[in-house]
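Folding Problem: From Residues to Backbone Shape
Fields: amino acid sequence; protein backbone structure tokens
RECORD BEGINS BELOW THIS LINE
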Amino acid sequence: MTFADKVIAFNKQLEYTGPPLPANIRIMNPFKEADQALTISEQFYRKYYSDDNQRHLILGINPGRFGGGLTGIPFTDPKRLIADCHIPYTGKLTHETSSAFIYEMINAYGGPHVFYRDLYINSLFPLGFTTRDEKGREKNYNYYDSKELSNAVTPAIIENIKKQIAIGCYTNTCFCFGTGQNEKFIKKLNDEHGFFNRIVALEHPRFIMQYKSKSKQAYIDKYLEAFSEAITGTG
């Protein structure tokens, strides 16, 4: 099986079977809820991952509603899917700020073919979470936003990391998007289970776009330097 075959098979079997979630929190599974997600993501992985090469793993938090929640591809919203990956999408062209940053960084790296040849992005928890505010509006939710939720999904997260590695990822260095709670959580698990030799945390794309947009190029440079050090074996 190619790297693509393994990712596609993983996505098709994704289902949460752990303890009940806290009240007002629901699982968002794009591969069962978004009409095009399975088809689109299969096209994507066959385009960029149809080989048996190993990659360095990047772990985000969990998918959001307007990016991976629609396309089934982490940090890839419909706009970037069409403009940068040249894969067709029918429906509302949503914008996700994290995706905008990631694809600007990917293009600085050399473009999708070059980037995805070396790196593979998934999430610590591969399905999304949503909640509703006091007006009934659905909002993204993170696995660490409540202790009850993070405790419930920890076994699933551990199993997910093992499966991501088995797809074909190096274990010398794992990259983590998020220098706060996501970094703290994955480093604790890594100390307990020894998945990777080291975790390199990078500021989350959403944080950069929301709070540090004037310094965006500096963060892109930081990403590229971190990836280069791991891939060339110098860091």
About this structure: The mean pLDDT is 96.
